[in-house]
Amino acid sequence: MTTPRHPRVLALVLAGGRGSRLGPLTEHRAKPALPVAGSHRLVDVVLSNLSHSGISDVWIVEQYLPHSLNDHLANGRPWDLDRTRGGLLVLPPFEGTDGEGFAEGNADALARQAELIADHSPDLVLVASADHLYTLDFRDVVDTHLGRGAALTMVTTTQADDPSRHGVVEVEDGRVTGFAYKPEEPASDVVSAEVFLYDTAVLLETIETLVSSGAELADYGDSLVPHLLAHHLVVEHRLPGYWRDLGTVAGYHQAHRDLLDGRSIDLADERWPVLTSATGSQPVRLEEPAEVRHSLLGGGAEVRGRVRDSVVGRGCRLEPGCLVEDSVLLDGVVVRPGVTVRHAVVDAGAVVEQDCLGEPDDILVVDREGRHRRD
């Protein structure tokens, strides 16, 4: 009796988007490089899920400000992806052959890598964005895919605050019967979690067919997923736990509220930790009259003011008499004496010299120059 062969899975992490919905937070960095919880970067989440799932062939598709991400990737070492065979491969935009230029969307990004995928010849292609906070064993997705004999398995969730901002999925008995990308009137509350597992042969054949026909191939909902729905079996794998899109200022801020309240994933779970190359081993300094309540402090932070219900990044300095409340401070922020920061996200390196007062449902953003902007 022979042992069944495990399928070869190639993972593509789409990390090239501009992240315009995050405003000034992505003017100087790629969205996947955005700090999370004062100790990690957003890309750490998907890379950790892949690492713990035993998927060791991982390609990072870059485009916007790649230098802000490359230093953090550290050749894949923190996620055990620095290997002689397989491991982490960074794919920047290129020219000189098929697929050259800048991608116009997620599906277009796949089409531009089609030749390289074919040369690699995996059995399955797992495509995930780097915009979300969640825990998922991708082996479970593979099991669903193989068990149903699907051409495409979409990871789905009902956790989205506003389904119209996502790919909305219609499902009957686990089979996907409809998909609409960011519709004005969602047909259901089930949305794509931006994780797609494709049969490689079907994916490449579909891309070739669509390109040859001149079909629009930008985002998933333009022609790729609709074509697969019309001609192949597409199924869902429902994500069982927490999921949040961090692609907007409101979503980014709420994700930190969730982390503080214990409603999110556990970054330090011994069984499934979120791994990172970010260093934060410096001690935190608290000096009287410092007051810290229900907050997270990054390594090297110095607090002489008050912090409540907030996340303070690495190397921040909060001077006497200041108050930081329901806010997220990225690395190296300085809050001057007596200044109040409330319901805000403050970009890295900003020096806050005047009050920053947002609202619980209208988060204020402070850019690196200390200018105030509304979400």
TrEMBL record:
<dbReference type="Pfam" id="PF24894">
    <property type="entry name" value="Hexapep_GlmU"/>
</dbReference>
<dbReference type="InterPro" id="IPR005836">
    <property type="entry name" value="ADP_Glu_pyroP_CS"/>
</dbReference>
<dbReference type="InterPro" id="IPR005835">
    <property type="entry name" value="NTP_transferase_dom"/>
</dbReference>
<keyword id="KW-0808">Transferase</keyword>
<keyword id="KW-0548">Nucleotidyltransferase</keyword>
<dbReference type="GO" id="GO:0008878">
    <property type="term" value="F:glucose-1-phosphate adenylyltransferase activity"/>
</dbReference>
<keyword id="KW-0320">Glycogen biosynthesis</keyword>
<dbReference type="InterPro" id="IPR056818">
    <property type="entry name" value="GlmU/GlgC-like_hexapep"/>
</dbReference>
<feature type="domain" description="Nucleotidyl transferase">
    <location>
        <begin position="11"/>
        <end position="261"/>
    </location>
</feature>
<protein>
    <submittedName>
        <fullName>NTP transferase domain-containing protein</fullName>
    </submittedName>
</protein>
<keyword id="KW-0067">ATP-binding</keyword>
<keyword id="KW-0119">Carbohydrate metabolism</keyword>
<dbReference type="Pfam" id="PF00483">
    <property type="entry name" value="NTP_transferase"/>
</dbReference>
<dbReference type="GO" id="GO:0005978">
    <property type="term" value="P:glycogen biosynthetic process"/>
</dbReference>
<feature type="domain" description="Glucose-1-phosphate adenylyltransferase/Bifunctional protein GlmU-like C-terminal hexapeptide">
    <location>
        <begin position="290"/>
        <end position="355"/>
    </location>
</feature>
<comment type="similarity">
    <text>Belongs to the bacterial/plant glucose-1-phosphate adenylyltransferase family.</text>
</comment>
<dbReference type="InterPro" id="IPR011004">
    <property type="entry name" value="Trimer_LpxA-like_sf"/>
</dbReference>
<keyword id="KW-0321">Glycogen metabolism</keyword>
<keyword id="KW-0547">Nucleotide-binding</keyword>
<dbReference type="GO" id="GO:0005524">
    <property type="term" value="F:ATP binding"/>
</dbReference>
<dbReference type="InterPro" id="IPR029044">
    <property type="entry name" value="Nucleotide-diphossugar_trans"/>
</dbReference>
<dbReference type="InterPro" id="IPR011831">
    <property type="entry name" value="ADP-Glc_PPase"/>
</dbReference>
